[in-house]
Design goal:
This protein has five helices and five strands. It has a five-stranded parallel sheet, sandwiched between helices. The chain has a single domain (2-142), classed as Dehydroquinase, class II (Rossmann fold, 3-Layer(aba) Sandwich). The termini are close together. The chain has helices spanning 19-22, 27-41, 53-66, 82-90, 129-142, and strands at 2-7, 44-49, 69-73, 95-99, 121-124. It binds 1,3,4-trihydroxy-5-OXO-cyclohexanecarboxylic acid (DQA). 1,3,4-trihydroxy-5-OXO-cyclohexanecarboxylic acid binds at residues 10, 73, 75-76, 78, 99-101, 103, 110.
């Protein structure tokens, strides 16, 4: 089983970016923790981050060709990228949406997700734990 973990714009800055919202863990640390859990669960993990919408759309299409499931934090694209939404809708693999912060307790525009309707489910507000919980949940679902 192979799970693709896709991260959107500015998540490369985790660790120093708005720690009140996103905490102090870096994306490399989140990746290492997920890789450890993937090894424990006996699944392969492909982890990527991009600041570009097109790269994320390509990554969703690649995930469908090579993988079994997607965990995606589309970051700001969550709130307006119909291209990412359509890519998730087009592919035949389940996706979980993850957000570090509680997007429902911040600015009103963050409460809207254009990708949520085409995802299996989502986790928000739990910080980096949301990623590992999503991995456990997606592997359970696929098994
Ligand atoms: C985020 C929430 C988004 O609103 C924001 O644009 C991000 C990060 C989160 O993980 O909490 O970049 O997806």
């Amino acid at each position: 089983m192979k799970i693709h973990v896709l991260n959107g714009p500015n998540l490369n800055l985790l660790g120093s970016r708005e720690p009140d919202h996103y905490g102090d863990r870096t994306l490399a640390e989140i990746r290492a923790e997920m890789e450890g859990l993937a090894a424990e669960l006996g699944v392969d993990l492909h982890f990527m981050q991009s600041n570009s919408e097109g790269d994320l759309i390509d990554a969703i299409q690649d995930a469908a060709e090579e993988g079994d499931g997607i965990i995606i934090n589309p970051a700001a694209y969550t709130h307006y990228s119909i291209g990412i939404r359509d890519a998730l809708a087009a592919v035949d693999v389940p996706a979980l949406e993850v957000h570090l912060s509680n997007v429902h307790a911040r600015e009103a525009f963050r409460a809207d997700s254009v990708v949520a309707p085409v995802c299996l489910g989502g986790i928000w507000g739990l910080g980096p734990a949301g990623y590992t919980l999503a991995l456990r949940a997606l592997v359970d679902f696929l098994r």
